[in-house]
Amino acid sequence: MEIKKVVVIGSGTMGSGIAAHLCNANIPVTLLDLKTEISEQARDKIHKSKPPLLLDKSKINNIKVGNILDNFDEVKEADWVVEAVVERIDIKHDIYKKIFKERKKGAIVSSNTSSIPIKVLSQHLSEEEKKDFCITHFFNPVRYMGLLEIVKNENNDLDKINSLKKFCETELGKGAIVCNDTPGFLGNRIGVFAMQVAMTEAFKMKLSIEEADAIFGRPMGIPKTGVFGLYDLIGIDLMADVLKSFIKELTENDPFQMVAKEIPLVKKLIETGYTGRKGKGGFYRVNKTGEVKVMEAINLETGEYSASKKINIHSDKVDLKKLISRKDKYGEYAWSVISKIIKYASSLVPGITNDFNDIDEAMRLGFNWTKGPFEMLEEIGVETFFGKIDNFKGNAFLENLAKTNNQDFYGSRQKYTDIETLGKAKKTATSVDGNNSAQIYRFNDYNIVEFTTKANALDYDSMDALKKATDKPLIIINESMQFSAGVNLSYTMDFANKNDFKSIEKFIRYFQETCKHLKYSNHPVVSAPSGLTLGGGFEVMVQSNFVASHTNIVVGLVETIVGLIPAGGGCKEMLARWLDTDEAKKDPHYAPLKVFDIIGYGRTATSPVEAEPMKYLKPEDKKIMNRNSLLEVSKKILENNREFKAPSEIKFKLPGKEVLIEMNKIIEKLYNEKIIRDHGVTVAKELAHVLSGGDTTIDKILSEDDLFKLELDAFMRLIETKETQDRIKYTLATGKPLINEARSSLIFLSNFFSKFLSLPGFAAQCP
User: Fold this and answer.
1) What are the 10-residue block averages of pLDDT along the chain, 767 residues in total?
2) Are 6 and 25 in contact (CB under 8 A)?
3) Which residues, at least 6 apart from 502, have a Cβ–Cβ distance to it below 8 Å?
4) How far apart are CA 367 and CA 110, in angstroms?
5) 3 state DSSP class of 353
6) β-pairing, 604-605 with 553-556?
7) Quick one: pLDDT at residue 494?
8) Are residues 379 and 488 in the same domain?
9) Are 413 and 427 a contacting pair, CB within 8 Å?
10) DSSP symbols for 609-620
């Protein structure tokens, strides 16, 4: 069946998110609630949301609103009706009665519940109605979270389920995984269990919460919040309610029951209002004494708070085999948690799903794990796992695996979709090479480069991989949530701390050389960005020949926040794009001033729709809803450009001192209005010097190399200052800009960027 119109009933967080995302996909949608005023307020919140729920805010009125009394006729025209009301079964039953009375024949009806089984939801429906009823469990926030669980049971019309799955995949861009009607469905069942294991084992082994979070985080391929940080993010009281639901729904002998038991300290925290970030604090809290804020952590044994300690376990990369082999408490903790997760997940096959692969993908898409439980098992190795595991009697999956001793049990990835994803392709590469910062996957007709550092930050090795891979057509794409958050500041500061500025200059030169090489390579280069594409990451993308962008992209040049300017060609490329406008052809000052504003204020775009007016993206760049499709689209671009010829180098005519005078007036005004301070003036003047063309006049022709030199010289003058170094150090230590000094660097990262850091890719969440 074809879905051309959707009605969403319930305009709370989830209903609004679903309606907004349907609007993103250009699907006509009506949002209904008890009163029209409520749905109107919801639409207004969608428009103002940060991070934005809409790709294009101008389309907000494409979401029709109304109430279930006067506007229920909308259901008659809908091909799909989504119920997203409060988790009260009596209210849901009343809604279903009305929906099935009014819906057109064959229309799909679904609930967005995260916990109530289909058998309970559909108990008053006829056999015919049950065929068209299922659960569509979106994860929050709907626009950004990739996972959609479509929950079915034996009553469903499977053709209808598959049709809905295809629609959600192709039109909504979701990783739509079909699973059976079991408590907690798929993602939450495993995800919440993993959290509880990580917590209970920390109590048992008497680890500090900082130690547990240091292990149950990046070293395990799990978002850096860790378990206690994630508890605080979700809400300790909410998690307590989630656990009660699992205890009620699961059998007494389910291993979940053991880890879901109430913990006295957790109970006390809830009772005293320490419910997490939304309350007075939680396992972590901020203690403010005067103007000084101190992050504190709770002692799991005493319940007392003290200053939080940073734990360095000397393991930044995901290496599970190495992690569980450690002869210390961290290795013991890691093995205990990982082994229990693998045991539990494998015990649910085929109960939850017939294919264990689906469980891994649910954890990737819904909880942002690098590896699911079975990929963890694959990495550890079958022999190593069974050499360390104790009892797995009654676990059919593990018993069979132990019997067959199949080291290659995993097979292919991402079976839930027919799309040729990056995950699938990597398994079929003819050869793989690379270094500590990037992997090169080689195929017969093209190469793939995937960055592998934290936030895919760029360094010398990243550049090496890019240059090495241009012997064939190249696709730059990443399976992690970010394309690249920019140049590795730690890498840069290591040299700065030694006063080794020659090495910094050498790296920036090599970065420039690499980006120019990408742009003028004999073979086409496609960048396929998603997530953060900032600073150096943007410079790699913008100097590729073609771009296939995911719609959930955060793109921009934000170097000024740390007292620097773009030096990998970002200033150059933005000037080139703005010089190629009708306005710039009439007014030679137009392009430099426009780019001065964009880069100076570190303006970021949160979608291709926002990126195009700033010329971060071009109209011809591909924009894709389904992140899984980035590789297929990129390959199609290469196929369509078999006769590719490298572009001609750009020449620049810039006004020099003439426009510099105007820029200096802007800087002076900002200083007088106390928007920028002393070092901010320094940064702004360096940026102005570059964008004006330096010591030039409008009749002089500048090459790309001339612009590269201007960028490099300005960058080096700034990196050598104490003020810039202080900002970089603060950002590295906190993950945030130096707030009091941000004004003095002329820019502010948008509210979106700061909030984005706690959303997809940086912190998993339990809907």
Assistant:
1) 95 97 97 98 96 95 97 97 96 97 96 94 97 97 96 96 97 97 94 97 97 94 93 95 93 94 95 94 90 92 95 82 95 97 97 94 94 96 94 94 94 93 95 96 98 94 98 96 94 95 97 98 98 97 98 96 96 98 97 97 95 98 97 98 96 97 96 92 97 97 98 98 94 71 35 37 30
2) no
3) none
4) 23
5) coil
6) antiparallel
7) 95
8) no
9) yes
10) HHHTTTTSS-TT
Q: Report the DSSP beta bridge partners of residue 528.
A: 477
Q: Which of 98, 40, 96 is nearest to 64 (CA)?
A: 40
- Cβ(539)–Cβ(515) below 8 Å: yes
CATH number for the domain including 307? 1.10.1040.50
Tokens 């403010």 found at: 288
In this structure, the number of other CB atoms found within 10 A of the CB of residue 419 comes to 18
Q: Cβ neighbours of residue 543 under 8 Å, at least 6 residues apart?
A: 515, 516, 518, 519, 569, 573
Q: Which of 174, 228, 171, 167 is nearest to 202 (CA)?
A: 228
Q: What's the domain count of the chain?
A: 4
> Domain of 61: which CATH number?
3.40.50.720
Query: Is the bond preceding residue 264 a cis peptide, omega within 30 degrees?
Result: no
- Using DSSP's 3-state secondary structure scheme, residue 306 falls into strand
Give the pLDDT confidence score for residue 744 in this predicted structure. 33
Rounded to whole angstroms, the Cα distance separating 285 from 279 reads 9
Query: What domain range is 717 assigned to?
Result: 657-750
pLDDT at 740: 44
| pTM as predicted | 0.92
Largest CA distance in the chain: 83
Q: Are residues 156 and 201 in the same domain?
A: no
Place of tokens 């990129």: 634
